[in-house]
Amino acid sequence: MTNASTTITLYGIPNCDTVKKARTWFTDQGLDYAFHDFKKQGVPAGHLPGWLAAVGRDKLVNRQGTTWRKLDADTQAAVKDDASASALLQAQPSVVKRPVVEWKTGGSTRISVGFVPETWNEWRKGGSNP
Questions:
Q1: Is 16 among the catalytic positions?
Q2: Which of 2, 6, 11, 16 is catalytic?
Q3: Which residue among 23, 36, 44, 77 is the one 20 to 30 A from 102 at the CA level?
């Protein structure tokens, strides 16, 4: 189990199958978490610099998804640095690879992208960032 000072926030879209798997996994593990709905609450601009620093824009921007494929070529080509990636992620929340999970313990924050229960198991046991 996570210790009492650990907070987990899962960011995503409720009808996304990968987000559903993640939510089920957290519930099955008995882990409390907050859910941040990108569709209702948007992508938190203040978190994007940390997410981009932790995982990089190539991992955070879902270039395989339907939303990306529907973007015109100019919009896709304009994503060439963190600032342009941030602007797109805020304008098109469905382009964010999901889920994004923040684990905050004390003064440190760990970020994961996608459904990665092996990583989450390590983190809840107090292990290091793989």
A1: yes
A2: 16
A3: 77
